[in-house]
Automatic annotation (TrEMBL):
This is T9SS type A sorting domain-containing protein. It comes from the Bacteria. Residues 27-49 are annotated as: Disordered. Keywords: Signal. Residues 1-18 form the signal peptide. The keyword Signal applies. Residues 38-47 have a biased composition (Basic and acidic residues).
Amino acid sequence: MYRTVLAAVLALAASVVALEFPDTPGAISSGPRVASQPDRDQVRPETHGTPTTAYAMLEQMSPTERSNACISIEFESSDAELLALGREVERLWNGGRCDEALAQLANLEACVGPVAVGNLWRTPVPTLQPDLWETDVRIGNRDTLMELAFDQQLSSGNLFVVLRHGTKSAWYLNMSTDGGANWSETYVWGGYGVVPSVDAAVLANNVYVVYSDSADNATQVRLRRFDCASGSIDSFSNSEEWVTACTLAAGDSVRELSLVSNQHGYNNRLYITTLVSDGSVLFSWDDTSAVSWLKVPTGITAGADFGLDATENQGFDSTFLFFSYYDTNDTLRIYGKTGGSLTRRYSLYVGGFSAYKTSISAYKDTVICAFNDGTSSPYQVLYRINYSGSPSWGFGTLSEPDTTAESPGVTARGGGGLAVVFRHYTPTRELRFRQRVNYGPGPWTDPISIADADPYWNRPGIEYLGSGVFGVAYLRRTSPVVRGAFFDRSDWPTGLAEQRRIIVSENILSVTPNPLSGRGRLNYTLDRPADLRVQVCDRAGRVVRTLYAGGRPAGRQSFGFDATGLVPGVYFIRADADGMARTVPVTVVR
């Protein structure tokens, strides 16, 4: 494992400070284009491979998958008979008559062309974790992914990641109910045409997913929602499983989407920002019903190119949402949305290169945007920040000046300060993490590597999970699978972190009570006699106490654990039996 712990206490002790300088928005600064760098990854996958029909997707399912799949057919039509035929396909399949359903589906696609299929797993499909020590937790069993969206429900702590496939027309919903230790896939959407973009956001009791089905109607921005407790489909008030949130002009299509909620505030609004194929930007919003969307012109009618991101402004004064993107003049644009207007807040020339995404976040009118800079050599990850809506902006560099860096993800939401991750170009690519524990000007922590393998170049997801902890979702470039999705937390320390999921699921090691004040018991199970060593480690993985070392018989056993003298905080009990180790966290309190 390549990382060290990201605990907030280390943030205060960082020795390297990223200098921040004043800047002023206004005229676009210009600069020379920097030649392409030979060390930078240039090969990127197709955005779509050979199309697969709904018939083929369902036909290829195994018997086990067929019995677990509860499907819905998605297509747009005003023909009542064709709509009824689609419902008949659903009834037959979900009733176990899959071959009959496939025959009727063939008839339907012969009439209307390719349709999309939504598949709710009756029993969510758990992630099959690799049998490897010291690896990050995998999200789902899919590979060859292109994009992810990450959010959490504040009230329950449940986590959600939506994954878009890189060559198929498909996206997948995954959730975790235990803080990211275990993940399950609850839903799969598959279509025929290119899925250009997906995004997700939690509002109240639902997680919403925005997408576009280019094969059925490329002008439509569509939305589905799912129950945050189970990940199952939650139909809208019109009894439909999907709604059209925005319709573009004839001939236009979706290029990129960003979905934002105000979950951290009033918890009653959804906002969709759409970057359109003609270079315009559209804004739409609705309440928790999400069936009567209002489309609001932005005044941006041309020039928007790629890199879209948007954010709520938690605890805002007047500007409730910000969004950012790159335009066709290689310029970073930042806009703020108030109740009745849209204001361009910042413009900066960033050079002509194949940047992927901007990343923007805000908290109480402090807004930060991290982005790729192509005017420097090597390419760098920079940020622009505005404090409390002032007319002046600050700027700084997040990456190291002698090493290429790209693809930042930043968060300010939740009250946990500022945090960012980005791709760092060591020979084995690293996912670097930096943090600022407050929202005012001040030092950033030293950049540290947090991933166990090299990340892919897409934008990672980062969210504040509370109690000083950040969660990170990212795609790996190769090992152990090509572009699989993985998860990490800032309170999972070196060499111990991902072992927590094994203990939780197998219930073979525990501390009671937990949290612990003073004396408690360590309970464990050995399936055979073994040489046992039990140690207490801090969050950096350092051994602070050895509780036992010697032979033990098989069976369920326990012994006393005296935490008196330990500084309050999170520790990890590591039990090593004949080379097989298990770990459990324990919180020590006064």
